[in-house]
Write a structure and sequence with these properties.
Radius of gyration: 26 Å
Number of helices: 8
Order of helices and strands: HHHHHHHHEEEEEEEE
Structural class: alpha+beta
Oligomer: single chain
Largest sheet: 8 strands, antiparallel
Shape: flat
Strand content: 25-35%
Number of strands: 8
Helix content: 40-55%
Number of domains: 2
Length: 251
């Protein structure tokens, strides 16, 4: 077991180095990719042609936030900067910030392995150590998903107990979609971590279609057991309801 863990940590060390090198290559590629734009703007026959080049390069999502006058002013501010920019060989070299970022990438990849490995060095019983390791990974998965949800401004968090199995809990993160006004379709794709008597991960969904006063609802998930493939299963439930009067529900 210790030899297997040492091999896993060595593998993570190698992946940390690979990701660090890929990060530096991406930084150089991103800087070099700006050179054609600078050259095209500086070689434009007049200011109008240069502004057209810049507006074609600016993302449409950003332009949609601005009115025509603001787009023109924004493009001119970029033109004033790009027209004076100098193309140097440093754009294709590794910069100091690239090294700092690569160092951070290496440690993020390497340290992410430690929570899964530490229980096997602490506990003598492999089965119990595996359960602790799975629990730590699920908690980390939830925290990373929560951070992503804050960044993406999603708003669906869910906790369950005794749902997938007895003495088993699960944590879910999802994104809510809603379409329609009278005929309303609401969908929530989710991803969850399951721990307890059974341990694993589970993609899931909830879906509802409503047309006042009637509503149809379904929810499901596919559970991937961390211990054995034979423990995988799909579960789904459905319901319908009518709301003839406020506060009165028929199911």
């Amino acid at each position: 077991m210790r030899q297997l863990l040492a091999a896993a940590i060595g593998c993570n060390l190698a992946w940390g180095i690979i990701d660090a090198v890929m990060y530096m290559m991406n930084c150089i590629t991103e800087r070099s990719g700006k050179v054609p734009l600078i050259e095209a703007v500086q070689r434009a026959r007049d200011a109008r042609a240069a502004l057209d080049i810049i507006q074609n390069e600016v993302e449409s999502e950003l332009q949609s936030l601005l009115d025509p006058e603001e787009r023109e002013a924004f493009s001119r501010s970029i033109l004033n900067y790009v027209a004076k920019a100098r193309i140097t060989s440093t754009r294709t070299r590794v910069a100091k910030d690239d090294l700092y970022g690569a160092f951070a990438c290496f440690w993020l990849v390497f340290v992410s392995c430690l929570p899964a490995a530490i229980p096997f060095f602490i506990f003598s019983q492999p089965h119990f150590a595996l359960r602790v390791s799975n629990f730590l990974l699920i908690v980390l998965l939830f925290l990373v998903g929560r951070k992503w949800a804050q960044h993406a401004r999603t708003d669906h968090l869910e906790a369950r107990y005794n749902y997938e199995s007895i003495k088993t809990g699960s944590l879910w993160l999802g994104y809510n979609f809603s379409v329609g006004k009278k005929l309303v379709l609401e969908a929530t794709p989710m991803f969850g971590g399951v721990f307890g008597d059974i341990t694993g991960i589970a993609p899931g969904y909830s879906l509802s279609i409503s047309y006042e006063p009637i509503e149809f609802f379904t929810q499901g998930e596919y559970f991937f057991n961390a211990g054995t493939r034979a423990g995988n299963f799909f579960y789904s439930c459905r319901s319908s309801a009518a709301h003839p009067e406020p506060g009165f529900v028929l199911e």
